[in-house]
Design goal:
It is a single chain. The chain is an all-alpha fold. The protein has one domain. 48% of the residues lie in helices and 0% in strands. The longest helix has 21 residues. The protein is elongated and about 70 Å long. About 6% of the residues have low confidence.
Length: 170
């Protein structure tokens, strides 16, 4: 089975070209960053993600179809890919700033740890706007317009009836 690469080379190049990474505004084309460096970095980032997730999600990792990769995992792989590209471009001990290492290596790995610790199935990441990070519910007491029971039990929330009638009149 062919390996699915989670990081997207265009996203890695765009991040480097945007100037978001200090000192990378001139990375505009193949003469500045060769495609093979980006491909190698994306592959390495994918393997890093797989290593970190494999023990917790043995049935889901590696992904068999690229369309099944949750956006959170793709974003983490892209950030790791940026880090590995920069490491390839700036060889030697400690050439990258602490800020770059924090943003493109430590933070993505912390996000992976958060995903693993949460126990959320990978198939649910990114669905319906969900995220592993905590969210606040501003409508904690709100009753849904329709419940999900049998058809006979479905009813309109009384608080919404006035809104529906108002919408129809306008």
């Amino acid at each position: 089975m062919p390996e699915i690469i989670y990081a997207i080379s265009g996203d890695i190049r765009e991040e480097l070209n945007s100037g978001a990474v200090p000192g990378t505004k001139n990375y505009k084309d193949e003469t500045q960053i060769r495609g093979d460096i980006i491909t190698r970095s994306a592959r390495r980032a994918t393997r890093e993600v797989n290593i970190r997730l494999k023990n917790t999600y043995p049935d889901e990792i590696p992904f068999a179809v690229s369309g099944n990769v949750p956006p959170e995992i793709e974003g983490i792989a892209n950030d790791l890919g940026v880090y590995y590209v920069l490491r390839a471009k700036h060889r030697g001990p400690g050439p990258l700033s602490a800020t770059v290492r924090e943003q493109y290596y430590n933070d993505p790995l912390a996000s992976l740890k958060e995903i693993v610790d949460s126990g959320v199935p990978l198939s649910e990441l990114g669905s319906q706007g969900s995220s592993v990070s905590e969210t606040s519910d501003t409508n904690a007491d709100y009753e849904a317009v329709f419940d999900m029971d049998e058809v006979e039990n479905q009813r309109v929330d009384p608080d919404r009836l006035g809104d529906i009638a108002s919408d129809r009149r306008s």
